[in-house]
Amino acid sequence: MDNLTIARVFADVADLLEIKGENPFKIRAYRNGSDTIAHWPDPLATMDEAALRAIPGVGKDLAGKIRELVETGRSAYHQELLQEFPPTILELMTLQGVGPRTVARLHASLGIRTLADLEQAAKDGRIRALKGMGPKKEALILEALDERRRHAGRHLLSDTAETAAALVAWLQTECPATEFIPVGSLRRGCETCGDLDILAVGGTPAVIDRFVTYGLVERVLGQGDTKGSVLLGSGIQADLRLVPVESRGAAMQYFTGSKPHNISVRDRAAGRGLKLNEYGLFDVATGERVAGDSEAGIYERLGLAWVPPELREYRGELEAAESHRLPRLIAREDVLGDLHMHTTETDGRDDLEAMVESARAAGLRYLAITDHSRSLAMANGLDERRVIAQAARIRALNDRLEDFTVLAGIECDIRPDGSMDLADDCLAELDIVVASVHSAFNQDEAQMTDRVLSAIEHPYVDVIGHPTGRLLLKREPYRLQMDRAIAAAAAHGVALEINSQPDRLDLGDTHARLARERGVKLVVSSDAHTRAGLVALRWGVVVARRAWATPDDVLNTRPVEGFRAGLRRNRTRPRSEA
DNA sequence: GCCGTTTTCGGCCCGACTGTTTTCAGTCG
Length: 578
Prior knowledge:
Shape: globular
Mean pLDDT: 91
Oligomer: single chain
Number of strands: 17
């Protein structure tokens, strides 16, 4: 049983307890536990009770339930709750404007169990008959059902960022006296965003009035003097919050989150006789405001270094901020080379020369061409003969270039049996080999793990490309024991890729952090298929930052000679040859 | 249900908006 499954059980328990009207702090305990477990880097299935209890938010009870889940595959408590309520009732909670109290009442008085039941009841006008409900609530439920059908769920970081950039640019033109700042999960660089939060610093309620008239607004969800909320045509919900200029820092801190980070910061404030809200940091005794203009001022007053937004996930950042041990995070400018891209030779849309020009324009100093190998016939993958011919062309081009290096590489398929898709003597000829899985995604965990471990052990493999194979919001990662892959990569000096494609971001932040902590070098690569695709490096860098990576953790921040020296093929030469 | 240089018992972040209320509950972030 993996961590995500355990996390889901606890999240379900929290929802069910909420519907039941249980003690809110008990509910929070399950929810906190669920959130922590979902991002916990080590597999809980292999941990004993003492180790489990060392996880923050996991006490005697939760540790026992985790053991029960691991050993029996189920939790008696979870099952008990499911006897009281049908499992489908949890879907009702995902509707905008429908919370636990409403679900409980719908279930108790109308026997509603499913989304279909709810829709029928709303259409029949049975909702409005309930105490505390009315025609408007009924209409809202129908709208929420419709919206859920059309664009359920979350949005890629890059999509949210584009939406935000356009909206902020428009707002800035319409209301030049007000400053607009995107905050929330977008500012933290989360791989997907549920909605878009924007601050309007120093504006008047007229700014909210303007906001709801934005051309891409599909529906106004709410509008007051300090807050407006709209649904955009893309399905992204955007919230605009008005704050006074003197609260700029406090509001940025508050609305950037994450929730557990903020709870912890507030807790820390309370311990010092201070109260923190979106308007500032206040002395409880005197009511005096002691900070709030800037984020740094708030953290400083609490004895903390300013925490970069990407680290605000309650994963040890406050302890590091307190002891001034926060890492100097990698930035896009630190990346000097790009090690994964395709050309017209396989499934790319631009040729070798165009990719080089694009990389130069992006401020890079070197790149590696890594087209697909033979097995990927769909992409016109290269066999040994074509690989060698392409390498010759790359080297000829390289000889003509000044102040820039082009490396000859390949993205070589890892076959289902773990062998490489090209002959060893061919791979040996190249400057860099990225090995990736592109087939037989459905192998079981043992097969897939052995397969990837074989690749890591192969002497000419330098990097594992998009190690989990996930496609965000589309495809689950393949079943790979990541802790074993990371251990093997560390042992063999193989780097793991952070693939920057917005729908991959693979490795993700928690795995990348674990790899880094275990001594594995990372590379941030674009996997560009067009010359414009190199801009994706931006997103890979965000993931690396969320993994607490410094430039030193990422091989392609080094100048080309240092980079090449760090590749596995150049540092595992047998001693007799040295 | 978790947790502890304030606490092993008694706390647990906090404010805005909506719809249904005639003073507030529910939802959201």
